[in-house]
Write a structure and sequence with these properties.
442 residues; alpha/beta; Pyrimidine Nucleoside Phosphorylase, Chain A, domain 2; Aldehyde Oxidoreductase, domain 3; 3 domains; four-stranded mixed beta sheet; three-stranded antiparallel beta sheet
């Protein structure tokens, strides 16, 4: 076994680590024989000097193998195992729509998601706003629901990629979160532990994204695509815009309600619809469920039109403890805030740009996210009817509706939104939602 300090020294000096050294260090992270200081030094050395694609593949696989790797009865499933991961954004409820759509098209989606981080909302927090929904079931229940329904969205369990849990916690307090190899290994170790055949990444960029600069988003997307494909999972990445809220809501129960409206066809905001369909298309192609984009588009549309996607969502919710009639009567189950106030713009005009991070923080301040790890999330608060770039606003056409627990919190959110939206007279330049698609290197 290689000494941990020698592994750190090699990376500190810009050298490449071999498989044995990486495995030894990951084992040390998992069993505690590598101290916090050594793990922190390794993370800093990696941040400063990077890793080759081959090193990152080996790190990802070692972290995946640090815990349980889910095995599937593929004969019983009869379809590919597919997933999607997003780097996070404001109003990003795509997973809630995407998993049942792909399931309705013949895929199986074992989606392991996270909670809110910083100014972004978390998929699990949205699902926790559904009464009774078990977002952290045991693995056997998870596998049963995926097998019977076609999809299940849950949180990471302690026995999946446990090395990542300790490494991430140390990175979080040592200013080493931004390392692209470590981000890649963190994301993919958990995804690969789910036994996937195909994966699609949604890497967001813009004012509401962690990767605010397009070049950084592209670098992360390229790293994830190359490492995942190198580890044997067919993977593509889409770079998508996060310079405005995705959809028309931000806040947990409100986003579930928008999901229901999307799946039933009651309302489909165009930019959100574009992202959902693009990711679904790549997932169907990755799983050989469609031979062309046109065939994939036809299957997606059919699953929405005939109600199969909505039925899959309803069955998943019911199988994981939620209400049987959430799709039919969401208002009977989803919490609502007692105060709803219109956030009026500072002046009439057209929205030129949005500080989307500030919008996300406004939702957090209302109680829709966490300031501290131990904070409880209020499912009822948030924003609805959020306007986008290029839309005209006025006193009669507000920036958004604020859903709050009291008048004072609502007033603070209104003031924040007035500062976050820049209004002008002329329409802005076109702001496409799909910016780039990254495929495996040839």
């Amino acid at each position: 076994m290689t000494l941990f300090q020698e592994i750190i020294r090699t990376k500190r000096d810009g050298g490449a680590l071999d498989a044995d050294a990486i495995q030894d260090f990951v084992t040390g992270i998992s069993d505690g024989t590598a101290g916090d200081g050594q793990v922190a030094a390794f993370a800093m050395a990696t941040l400063l000097n990077g890793m080759t694609t081959e090193e990152t593949i080996m790190l990802t696989q070692a972290m995946r193998n640090s815990g349980r790797v889910i095995r599937w009865d593929r004969d019983r499933l009869g379809g590919p195992i597919l997933d999607k991961h997003s780097t996070g954004g404001v109003g990003d409820k795509v997973s809630l729509m995407l998993a049942p759509i792909v399931a309705a098209c013949g895929g199986h989606v074992p989606m392991i998601s996270g909670r809110g981080l910083g100014h972004t909302g978390g998929t699990l927090d949205k699902l926790d706003s559904i009464p009774g929904y078990q977002s952290t079931p045991d693995i056997e229940t998870f596998q049963r629901v995926v097998t019977e329904v076609g999809c299940a969205i849950i949180g990471q369990t302690a026995d999946l990629a446990p090395a990542d849990g300790r490494l991430y916690a140390i990175r979080d307090v040592t200013a080493t979160v931004e390392s692209i190899p470590l981000i890649t290994a963190s994301i993919l170790s958990k995804k690969l532990a789910a036994g996937l055949d195909g994966l699609v990444m949604d890497v967001k960029t813009g004012s509401g994204a962690f990767m605010a600069k397009p070049a950084d988003a592209e670098a992360l997307g390229r790293s994830i695509v190359d490492v995942a494909n190198g580890a044997g999972v067919a993977t593509t990445a889409l770079i998508t815009d996060m310079n405005q809220v995705l959809g028309t809501t931000a806040g947990n129960a409100l986003e579930v309600r928008e999901t229901v409206d999307y799946l039933t066809g009651a309302a489909r905001e165009p930019r959100l619809n574009t992202v959902v369909r693009a990711l679904a298309r790549d997932m169907l192609r990755a799983g050989a469920l469609a031979a062309s984009d046109a065939e994939a588009d036809g299957k997606i549309q059919a699953a929405l039109d005939d109600g199969r996607a909505a039925a899959c969502f309803s069955q998943m919710v019911r199988a994981l403890g939620g209400p049987e009639d959430l799709i039919e009567a969401p208002g009977n189950h989803l919490a609502s805030a007692p105060i709803v106030v219109a956030a009026k713009p500072a002046r009439d005009g057209v929205i030129q740009s949005i500080d989307t991070r500030a919008v996300g923080l406004a939702v957090v301040a209302l109680g829709g996210g966490r300031r501290r790890v131990e904070d409880k999330v209020d499912p009822a608060v948030g924003l609805s009817q959020v306007r986008g770039i290029g839309e005209r606003v006025s006193g009669d056409a507000p920036l958004a509706l604020v859903h709050a627990r009291d008048e004072a919190e609502a007033a603070r959110a209104v003031a924040t939104l007035a500062e976050a939206f820049r209004i002008a007279d002329a329409p802005p330049a076109e702001n496409p939602i799909l910016l780039q698609r990254i495929e495996a290197s040839r």
